[in-house]
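Try this one yourself first.
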């Protein structure tokens, strides 16, 4: 996936150790989503969402999408990805930063057909991803009692 050009990239800083932030974001297992499991999905569209599968790839049903979402976790690389709809893949990586951790979130077009339609469908995706990242940063900040902000 890294060889493809992202539709957008959002960068953030979390003033907490990289290992702590990475553990929070890659702490994923089968079962209900919540503050202790798939933290990044806990404020998602379905409060009763349950992940199945594991240990590195999971699926969850989601209202309005018959295919649901796919969650991929690479704990060694401090990376998680969420794939849904027919075209969307968001990857989030946690890297060291002088103030603690840098989070880099990128959105990719993974459509296997109709790729040409994605730029029209994805209009405004960067703004939506910035808003989504800010909500996540606010939750991380509260959970870890640290500063977290967009760059």
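Now uncover the answer:
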């Amino acid at each position: 996936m890294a060889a493809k050009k992202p539709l957008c990239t959002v960068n953030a800083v979390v003033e907490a150790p990289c290992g702590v932030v990475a553990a929070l974001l890659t702490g994923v297992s089968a079962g209900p989503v919540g503050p202790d499991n798939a933290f990044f999905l806990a404020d998602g569209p379905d409060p009763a969402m349950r992940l199945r599968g594991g240990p590195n790839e999971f699926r969850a049903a989601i209202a309005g999408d018959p295919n649901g979402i796919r969650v991929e976790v690479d704990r060694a690389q401090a990376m998680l990805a969420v794939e849904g709809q027919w075209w969307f893949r968001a990857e989030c990586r946690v890297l060291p930063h002088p103030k603690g951790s840098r989070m880099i979130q990128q959105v990719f077009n993974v459509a296997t057909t109709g790729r040409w339609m994605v730029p029209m469908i994805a209009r405004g995706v960067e703004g939506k991803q910035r808003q989504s990242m800010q909500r996540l940063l606010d939750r991380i900040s509260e959970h870890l009692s640290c500063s977290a902000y967009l760059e």
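Discussion: The longest strand covers residues 65-74. The helical segments are 18-26, 118-121, 125-144.
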